[in-house]
From TrEMBL:
PANTHER family: ABC TRANSPORTER ATP-BINDING PROTEIN (PTHR45772:SF1), CONSERVED COMPONENT OF ABC TRANSPORTER FOR NATURAL AMINO ACIDS-RELATED (PTHR45772). Keywords: ATP-binding, Nucleotide-binding, Transport. It comes from the Bacteria. SUPFAM superfamilies: P-loop containing nucleoside triphosphate hydrolases. GO terms for cellular component: plasma membrane. Pfam families: ABC_tran, BCA_ABC_TP_C. This is ATP-binding cassette domain-containing protein. Residues 6-254 form the ABC transporter domain. GO terms for molecular function: ATP binding; ATP hydrolysis activity.
């Protein structure tokens, strides 16, 4: 039986007279990778900002495991199991890889400021446990060789992997990945695709993905949700969505029986 984890029901977001998201209904089930695609300006990142509490919804509802997020302050979404990466890197460039990933454990820390300053008893035990979790993530993402490097000295692809590690450190139930392979070369993209599949299969974390790379989307997604002008065009299996006339028209600007969304890559119109 399918177990629904994240549910969006008729979600809208308006900025003045502009409706960026209009009536989106979407589910993410346990054990799934769901991708959200659409042309530039389709409302994808705005949708992520609503799910992660960066923005409030104008109407509709978002819930995780049946709990309505409208009743929860945005900064507490992480406690309910929502983790995310950002389209633009948001790392502490002067900190090490370990330090940056440790930030993801902050919400789990229970010790007081005094206990932490003395670094004794519970504070010491807690830090050891959190550092052990960070080492597990570093091992999982195969970044042991850069664990002590200052993040600002790393390549863009390595920094993306560190940001993924920090999101995993929050212990998410559903992980929002906003253009996680943007700017990466083919080898780096293939590595991230493998990690995404392992996150779902080995860590039992559901994935909601926004991505420009349609080959990646079609290769790893269980379902794809297509948006245009903030509204749903269609949802279904990758092959079904790929050949949907409305999706083709949204990417290419006209209807054609033979074209597919990937064809728009050359025109820079993807996702």
């Amino acid at each position: 039986m399918t177990q629904k984890l994240l549910q969006l029901r008729d979600v809208t977001k308006s900025f003045g007279g502009i409706q960026a998201v209009g009536g989106v209904t979407l589910d993410v089930n346990r054990g799934e990778i769901v991708s959200v695609i659409g042309p530039n300006g389709a409302g994808k990142t705005t949708l992520f900002n609503l799910i992660s509490g960066v923005l409030p919804v104008s109407s509709g509802s978002i819930s995780i495991e049946g709990q309505d997020l409208a009743r929860v302050p945005g900064h507490r979404y992480v406690r309910l199991g929502i983790g995310r990466t950002f389209q633009n890197l948001a790392l502490f460039k002067h900190g090490t890889v370990v330090d940056n990933i440790l930030v993801g454990r902050h919400w789990r820390m229970k010790t007081s400021v005094l206990e932490a300053a003395l670094h004794f008893g519970r504070a010491r035990r807690e830090e050891i446990a959190h550092r052990q979790k960070v080492e597990e993530i570093i091992d999982f993402l195969e970044i042991e060789h850069i664990r002590d490097k200052v993040v600002g000295t790393l390549s863009y692809g390595q920094q993306k992997r560190v940001e993924l590690g920090r999101a995993l450190a929050t212990d998410p139930k559903v992980l929002l990945l906003d253009e996680i392979v943007a700017g990466m070369n083919q080898e780096e993209t293939e590595d991230i695709a493998r990690f995404i599949l392992d996150i779902r299969d080995e860590l039992d974390i559901a994935i909601l993905l926004i991505e420009h790379d349609m080959h990646l989307v079609m290769d790893i997604s269980d379902r794809v949700h297509a948006l245009n002008f903030g509204r749903t065009i269609t949802e279904g299996r990758p092959q079904e969505v790929q050949s949907h006339p409305g999706v083709i028209e949204a990417y290419l600007g006209h209807k054609t029986e033979d074209a597919a969304p990937q064809d728009a890559r050359a025109a820079g119109g993807l996702a």
